[in-house]
Amino acid sequence: MANMHLNLFIMGCGHHKAAWRHPRSSVERLADIRYYEELARLAERGRFDAVFFADGHAAGNIADGPLWTLEPLTMLAAMARATEHIGLISTVSSTFYTPFHAARMLASLDHISGGRLGWNLVTSMFDSEARNHGLEAMPSHAERYARAEEFANTVLALWDSWSDDALVRDRQGDYVDASRVRPVHHHGEHFLVDGPLTVPRPPQGHPVLFQAGASDQGRDLAARYAEAIYAVAYDLPSAQAYYSDLQARVKAAGRPKVAIMPGLVTYVGSTEEEARRKQRELDELLPVDSSRRQLSQFIGQDVSDWELDAPVPELPPLEAFSGPKGRYATILRIIESERPTLRQLLGRLAAGGGHCTMVGTPERIADEMQRWVEQGGADGFNLMPPSLPDSIEDVVEQVVPELQRRGLFRREYQGRTLRDHLGLARPGR
Amino acid sequence: MANMHLNLFIMGCGHHKAAWRHPRSSVERLADIRYYEELARLAERGRFDAVFFADGHAAGNIADGPLWTLEPLTMLAAMARATEHIGLISTVSSTFYTPFHAARMLASLDHISGGRLGWNLVTSMFDSEARNHGLEAMPSHAERYARAEEFANTVLALWDSWSDDALVRDRQGDYVDASRVRPVHHHGEHFLVDGPLTVPRPPQGHPVLFQAGASDQGRDLAARYAEAIYAVAYDLPSAQAYYSDLQARVKAAGRPKVAIMPGLVTYVGSTEEEARRKQRELDELLPVDSSRRQLSQFIGQDVSDWELDAPVPELPPLEAFSGPKGRYATILRIIESERPTLRQLLGRLAAGGGHCTMVGTPERIADEMQRWVEQGGADGFNLMPPSLPDSIEDVVEQVVPELQRRGLFRREYQGRTLRDHLGLARPGR
Predict the structure, then answer these.
(1) What angle do CA B317, B319, B320 make, to 5 degrees?
(2) Which of A19, B50, B301, B407 has its CA 20 to 30 A from that of A30?
(3) Are residues A76 and A169 located together in one domain of the fold?
(4) Percentage of residues in chain B with pLDDT exceeding 90?
(5) Contacts of A28 in chain B (CB under 8 A)
(6) Are residues A138 and A219 in the same domain?
(7) pLDDT at site A99
(8) Which residue of B27, B64, B109 is in closest CB contact with A74?
């Protein structure tokens, strides 16, 4: 049976929006690099494939809680030196970087980490981000994806601009074999890049390319370029639907299967009840008034007089809702399948929203993860711990050993590079 | 007496172009981050103010020897974690980055290093670099400096977008005091940046701003913004001329004196003769044919039949030379003041060219450094070791103790930040 893949998606004090309010939270340490080094070492102790950072270029609504703090590429350089095996994945936006910057920094990090770098290619979303990088507004979705494809091609070409054996270092002769370092001469619609890169070919050939295609265009880009994919799946059926669609597109692009890892929020307890208690403890930290106001906005009706610990009333069907459909659909789905109280619904929305949430004992959660992998919904998971480090300690100490006992997850690293962990061949040049 | 400042300018295997050819060179380690960490620790053992990286965005003529390898910002993140006190300075070009990228990465590194970051602002020079970042050619000198000034203002404004006390972290209330995180709303000729930054205010308030203004426009920019200055000075009179001109411009800009550090190439030996031998050993590693060809180009006459170990013949005066004047003037100056053989001239040009070169015993070199500082030529030096780590080990182990005995250089670090080392106040906000 294929090994499962596990990523730790690091986000502030955890993916639950109220996690920073917990008395034991690390909110005072968010600008302390040692906090992130410790998290990477914890994930490495659990033999995870990688840690992963999302990224954003606008401060956002920070009164409510931390969003971004340090910049991911600089963090990963430090984390590379605090770990030995674990992969290190950073989001880099094709809308805000030049391909030369991206190729150069990622190649440098691949050297610094000894071949453990991954790049999550995103096109970014918000006008507030565009307006920090010289644009009045975000380019259209189509325009962003056209740029992203040219961007990916250019970055790959830059990594290929040095052959693996270009460095000769002949003290009586040449430093490099100049015929093995070639210009790129890319003159495309969005970019002009002569090359070659200043950095010799990365240890992995190419740092591993991740993508999280959701839209039609995003899925096609992922199918053509991604070597591993992050997904959003609320439950197994939606995971299966995404999985089979994506692998079909990958196959149509003439490429071998790629690992697909849906996001996963877990609350682990030695009993079902303890797990629920951990979830409730975080949910109860949410400021009720502002959460109510937000939900009222999301569903287009005033919820200020709904009872906090009573079941949420039924809502009008999706067709009858005129606001943004995506989030409304998620809310309908949570209400229909989980019959939550208002407090539970607010908590679910505050922790990974449309992502799968598993609450229970290590055995129960391992059962579910196994089912997803065996029934064609996932090749592994991008773990979104609601609180850090607590929730991921629970996974490392309780769920991982259970997966290992079942032969579903590695007991030791078998290789040194992120490509090794993901079973990906190294592209030669 | 004011303390002298010392920077280690790290460049490949050393600043001598043939250093990588030495049997003991670290040429095999240029993509190994541990090499740079060791150099930073060595400089920290010598109580240096900082290590410093130049930067370039084009591979250059790499057959002859290494130029760039890893990317400096990612290197400095790792080096920050391998050291405790020493400052860490990276070049970042205002022509190729957006101010938001620069402000964000430098702020992040200032947090990662606990307040030890410096930024050397350059405008870059070569068309080959421009053509890696989407430009057909470099903008004009005037255009680059206009952009650089707007760039510096925008970066400073982004660092100021968070007040020092913006982070409230009240678990029962707000994460930040929203009134202390303000947008920038910069809509200038070159940049549109709304802000605020995603990174909280850097520990130093502002990472220390370095500049190396040489042209008239460059000197004015340095006078208005730089908190420390790198200079090129062939000898004490030219150092004094630059020093007094620059400090006059600083004063005219209404700012206090800034530390000026000329580049300095040293060959240290326990005897004068041993020092000369070390210089000769590196010079003899230069490939003679290509060095002759290059010199022929520089001076516009064929030197292929000049004798290698005979004195260089006199050259036509500067006025009679129609090629690039700067380098020709340097060559004339070396010939006039040092009466070198052809091999010596080739060696001098291969190691820091127009920068001051001191060859001799630790006492002799300390004498010279003291003279420069006492006679208004410098506040310290940007050391450009011809070979690494050998030449800088010699400085740390032999020259620094001599300077310390004379009370000219710190025996222990007195503070924790680069601002502390340079005696610069922290800008509050």
Answers:
(1) 70
(2) B50
(3) yes
(4) 92
(5) 169
(6) yes
(7) 98
(8) B109
- Three-state SS string over A54-71 comes to CCCCCCCCCCCCCCCCCC
Q: Does A155 touch chain B (CB under 8 A)?
A: no
Asked whether the beta carbons of B70 and B113 are under 8 A apart, the reply is no
Residue B104 token pair = 């964000």
For residue B50, tell me if it sits in a domain: yes
| pLDDT of B289 higher than 50 | yes
Extract the tokens encoding A224: 């053509």
User: Is residue A53 within 8 Å of A75, Cβ to Cβ?
Assistant: yes
* Residue at which a domain ends, from A309, A334, A354: A354
Residues A158 and A283 in one domain: no
Please give the ipTM for the structure prediction: 0.96
Residue A130 shares a structural domain with residue A276: no
The answer on A160 and A16 residing in a single domain is: yes
In a structure prediction context, what are the per-residue pLDDT tens digits for chain A, which is 429 residues long? Answer: 458 999 999 999 999 999 999 999 999 999 999 999 999 999 999 999 999 999 999 999 888 899 999 999 999 999 999 999 999 999 999 999 999 999 999 999 999 999 999 999 999 999 999 999 999 999 999 999 999 999 999 999 999 999 999 999 999 999 999 999 999 999 999 999 999 999 999 999 999 999 998 889 999 999 999 999 999 999 999 999 999 999 999 999 999 999 999 999 999 999 999 999 999 999 999 999 989 998 999 999 999 999 999 999 999 999 999 888 888 988 999 999 999 999 999 998 999 888 999 999 999 999 999 999 999 999 999 999 999 999 999 999 999 999 999 999 999 999 999 999 999 999 988
Question: B71 in contact with A at a CB cutoff of 8 Å?
Answer: yes
Q: Is residue A428 in a domain?
A: no
Residue for token digits 């999706």? A318
Closest listed residue to residue A28, CA positions, set B166, B429, B201, B168:
B168
Do residue A173 and residue A253 come from a single domain?
Answer: yes
CB contact B133 to A (< 8 Å): yes
In this prediction, residue B211 carries a pLDDT of 97
Q: Which residues pair with B192 in a beta bridge?
A: B187
Looking at the fold, whether A346 and A396 belong to one and the same domain comes out as no
What is the extent of the structural domain holding B162?
Answer: 5-270+361-422
In a domain, A427, yes or no: no
How far the first Cα of chain A sits from its last, in Å, is 32
Instruction: Return the number of other C-beta atoms located less than 10 Å from residue A360's C-beta.
Output: 20
DSSP state of B268: E
Domain assignment present for B254: yes
Residues of B in contact with A169 (CB under 8 A): 20, 27-28
For chain A, what is the domain count? Answer: 2
Q: How many CB atoms lie within 10 A of CB B405?
A: 12
| One domain for residues A78 and A176 | yes
A225 Cα to chain B: minimum distance (Å):
23
Query: Residue B332 is inside which H or E element, if any?
Result: helix B325-338
- Let me know how many helices (H) and strands (E) chain B has, helices first: 15, 11
Smallest Cβ–Cβ distance between A31 and the set B73, B191, B200 belongs to B200
Domain closes at, from A320, A354, A388: A354
Please count the residues of chain A.
429
Mean pLDDT, residues B173-193: 96
CATH for A251: 3.20.20.30
What is the reported pLDDT for A2? 52
Chain A residue numbers touching B136 (CB-CB < 8 A): 192
> Could you tell me the pLDDT band of residue B352, with boundaries at 50, 70 and 90?
confident
**B86 φ/ψ sector (left φ>0, alpha ψ -120 to 50, else beta):** beta
pLDDT at B1 over 60: no
CB burial of residue A268 (10 Å; 0-12, 13-18, 19+): buried
The secondary structure of A290-310 as a DSSP string is HHHHHHHHHHTS--TTS-TTS
Helices (H), A253-357: 272-283, 288-299, 325-338, 342-350
